[in-house]
Write a structure and sequence with these properties.
359 residues; alpha+beta; Heat Shock Protein 90; five-stranded mixed sheet; 9 helices
């Protein structure tokens, strides 16, 4: 089948070239013809220039241009071009002489003078060669551009696949991390046989539904993310009871505002996991603002001065930073302050700038 396609392609190219050279012969007949001669004599005269025109043209198209010009061997291209022009000029002069003699049937008289000078004939033939060479260069340039675009598209497609795989991997890291922290909370209550343990398990069920199903989507409603933060806070309130002082403030969030899932909740997790005050109380302040689709999330928690609370503790914060880089690029700002008595995170995200390929 491939052989048949090659033969068909070869036949098409051959017919195309044949038609083009017939057009050149007609052009030569009317432009370089013998003054006062009949059409037959003009065609015979023009045909004598066709072999040298074809040879010169194909020398440029299939040898000089692909072998020297495209690889940017400019000196060799110029040198061999000069050789080609000198040799072809000689053959053009010979073709003109024999064409003139044969077209006049070896008879010299004043009835059939050449209408154009030899110099003009040479320039006209080289014009055909130049047009064919220019067309070949344009074709090569278009082909190279198309190949580059195809290569760029393949590279971009591969990068997007790798990006998606990395995002999925990061999400998979977050899920067990979150589940581990929450189960620890419930385990602590179960040891004390707290009567609120069943209620917490039910709340955990709701959170797991969100994590296992909703977070598989590229983006979720911001109000849903905030609602699950509230659920998580309720779970922790039952565990810490009087040892927790928490302030939670949030603007009214429009239902059309979306965010990548599980971006805010890990910050809240870390504040409960690592936070601790000198007086034995954990103090947490959470503030969520939204202005012109610009999300401003800030969380501050108390820490003991002796506690070295850094991002390296756990995968949560570093994981989120990596996801932010992949999803939002330069359209976010994350500031983390680790002071002696408090630890704060301030995340600003332009929710309108989430890349379309991850939506």
């Amino acid at each position: 089948m491939k052989k048949g396609k090659r033969i068909t392609g070869l036949v098409k190219r051959s017919l195309t070239h044949l038609v083009l050279w017939l057009i050149v012969v007609i052009f030569f007949s009317f432009f370089l013809g013998i003054e006062g001669a009949d059409i037959y004599s003009k065609i015979i005269f023009s045909l004598f220039f066709l072999p040298v025109t074809i040879a010169t043209t194909y020398t440029f198209l299939y040898h000089l241009i692909p072998k020297y010009l495209l690889p940017k061997h400019y000196f060799k291209f110029g040198l061999f071009t000069l050789y080609t022009l000198v040799i072809s000029s000689i053959f053009i002069i010979l073709s003109a002489f024999y064409g003139f003699v044969i077209a006049l049937e070896l008879q010299w008289n004043a009835n059939f003078p050449i209408s154009k000078s030899l110099f003009f004939i040479i320039i006209t033939i080289y014009l055909v060669v130049a047009i064919a060479s220019a067309f070949s260069l344009l074709k090569n340039n278009y082909s190279a551009t198309a190949k580059n675009e195809e290569l760029k598209n393949r590279i971009l497609e591969a990068q997007l696949k790798l990006k998606d795989q990395e995002l999925q991997y990061l999400k998979m890291q977050i899920h067990p991390h979150f589940l581990f922290n929450t189960l620890n909370t419930i385990y602590g209550l179960s040891l004390s046989k707290n009567e609120k343990t069943p209620e917490m398990i039910l709340q955990l069920s709701d959170l797991l539904d969100y994590i296992l199903y909703q977070t598989t989507k590229p983006s979720v409603k911001l109000e849903e993310e905030i609602n699950h933060i509230r659920n998580y806070i309720d779970l922790e309130k039952k565990r810490f009871q009087d040892a927790l002082e928490i302030e939670f403030k949030s603007d009214q969030i429009p239902s059309d505002i979306e965010l990548a899932p599980m971006l805010l909740l890990p910050f809240v997790e870390n504040s409960f996991k690592h936070g601790k005050g000198n007086d034995g109380k954990l103090k947490i302040s959470i503030c969520i603002k939204l202005e012109n689709k610009q999300l401003d999330f800030k969380i501050i928690n108390s820490v003991k001065p002796s506690c070295e609370y850094t991002i390296a503790e756990g995968i949560g914060l570093e994981n989120i930073r990596r996801r932010l880089n992949l999803l939002y690029g330069k359209n976010y700002e994350l500031r983390i302050e680790d002071e002696k008595e408090y630890f704060s995170v301030n995340l600003k995200v332009n929710t309108a700038k989430m890349p379309a390929d991850v939506r």
